Amino acid sequence: MEEFLINSAEIKNFGFNILTLSFLGTIIFSCLQGWSLFKQGKKIWDLEDGRSVSVIQFGYWAVYFFAVIPYGFSIGSIALIFNGLVGIPCVYILLGLWKFKDSKWYEWPTATSFLAILAIMIIADEVSEKEMIFSVSLFGIFIFGLFQIYEIWKEKNAGSVDIGVQKVFILTSMFWFVYSALVGNVPLVIFNPISIMMNVVVIFLYKKYKGPAQ
């Protein structure tokens, strides 16, 4: 572990520079991501209602974040490993949805099938293989994130969606875009603008369909 820390991109380039500032920013915003997701889960548990919150999106997010951890180890990135811990509050959300949401027949089998991504990421030997899995899984966030947009649009109600998640993820995507551009991570450079646009759409639908009590 000590050797990993010493050889990580962040420690090697640590100093008063843009890379270090961006790295510290990603750590801060990873914490904010985790907190916003925890609040989303708490809202579901407090209201005992999971309406309009997508099982498929959060199932994918949980697996994606946990898969980021072995990928981060493979490329020597502390920031990615720390960001992978955001998967923990996603599990909290999923437990609430399991208990309180009247889900469609296909939602949980689909969410469970995503575990294959984590398994493949763990058993992949080559860094290039993990890079490919990571790149594909990034665009999976775009595909399965559409289910959250669809949920609000279909219900014509914001339900138990906590809009703080989208606000934090927009800011976080801005930081990750800068960070990934500096370290030359092309998949993240491409993905983050897409993530920003999708979250803006969710915010628009939330404001359009939210009830008077929200």
Q: In summary, what is this structure?
A:
The protein is an all-alpha fold and 214 residues long.
Spell out the key features of this protein.
mainly alpha, 214 residues
| Main sheet: strands, sense, barrel | none
* Mean pLDDT metric: 87
Envelope shape: globular
- Overall strand count: 0
Helix content: over 70%
**β-strand amount:** under 5%
> Number of DSSP helices?
11
Spell the H/E element sequence. Answer: HHHHHHHHHHH
Distance between the termini: 46 Å
Radius of gyration: 17 Å
Low-confidence stretches: none
Structural class by SSE content: mainly alpha
Question: How many separate structural domains?
Answer: 1
How would you describe what is shown here?
Helix 8 runs antiparallel to helix 9. This protein has one domain (22-209). The protein starts with a helix and ends in a 5-residue tail after the last helix. The mean pLDDT is 87. The radius of gyration is 17 Å and the shape is globular. 80% of the residues lie in helices and 0% in strands. The protein is built from eleven helices and no strands. The relative contact order is 0.15. The protein has helices at 2-7, 9-12, 18-47, 55-75, 78-84, 87-100, 107-113, 115-123, 127-155, 164-183, 186-209. With 214 residues, the protein is mainly alpha-helical. The longest helix is centred in the first third of the chain and has 30 residues, at 18-47.
